[in-house]
């Protein structure tokens, strides 16, 4: 076990080797994604594919881990900030920066063991999930929002694990045609949504914890959570109540073996 990882040896005698060989994609490197890459680097994950077309702006500094005022002045790409953060923790990590939309270089995703989605829209989540399902890749999604209520604000969010051959986001009730249609009517733009750092950190930690359960021998007797809901007003992160109505249900939205691998045209 590598010296700097000794204190996490309880994850398994060979967990450091597992992490070092693991290849993860992180799509979206804002408040959530920057937390995730930082934690994965501390775990010793050795291979990263980072997708984000944006550069650092002033409004990012309240939540983007690793970004500085100098990055604002230089319009530093977010992929560069995350690479710098990872390499500062683990210089041996291999980091592939993709400073554009993931769809422009989607061929890099199938080579990954796990995909983290930290995107703003329902449409983007569905597109990523469909790709991951096609290539049998676990997809871990996080997201948060702030809702304006009559007597204040509601901070909420979710962490969803979409596993091959298990319940998808539509099964879980997180995605549906009405939500997608409403978003499409707004041209799919997330807009200037309110964001703060601590919900992103909580949800990112839950996502990384789920990743650890997937790839190491630690607590193999426990099935990873597939849908956690965050209430930022009460500071709770709990399994969704929807899960009790889905026990024993099979996914009916994603096709079987005929819908796997690279698509082709006849």
Topology at a glance:
Layout: H1 15-21, E1 23-27, H2 31-43, E2 47-51, H3 69-74, H4 78-89, E3 94-98, E4 114-117, H5 122-134, E5 139-149, E6 152-162, H6 177-185, H7 197-215, E7 227-231, E8 236-239
Parallel strand pairs: 1-2, 1-4, 2-3, 4-5
Antiparallel strand pairs: 5-6, 6-7, 7-8
Write down the secondary-structure element order: HEHEHHEEHEEHHEE
Rg calc: 18 Å
Described by strand count, sense and barrel closure, the largest sheet is: 8 strands, mixed
Return the domain count: 1
Q: And the CATH topology?
A: Rossmann fold
Q: What portion of the residues fall into strands of 2 or more residues?
A: 15-25%
Shape: globular
Structural class: alpha/beta
Task: Give the rounded overall mean pLDDT.
Answer: 90
Put simply, the count of helices is 7
Kindly provide the name of the CATH class: Alpha Beta
Strand sequence of the main sheet, in spatial order? 3-2-1-4-5-6-7-8
**Known CATH architecture:** 3-Layer(aba) Sandwich
- What is the straight-line distance between the termini? 51 Å
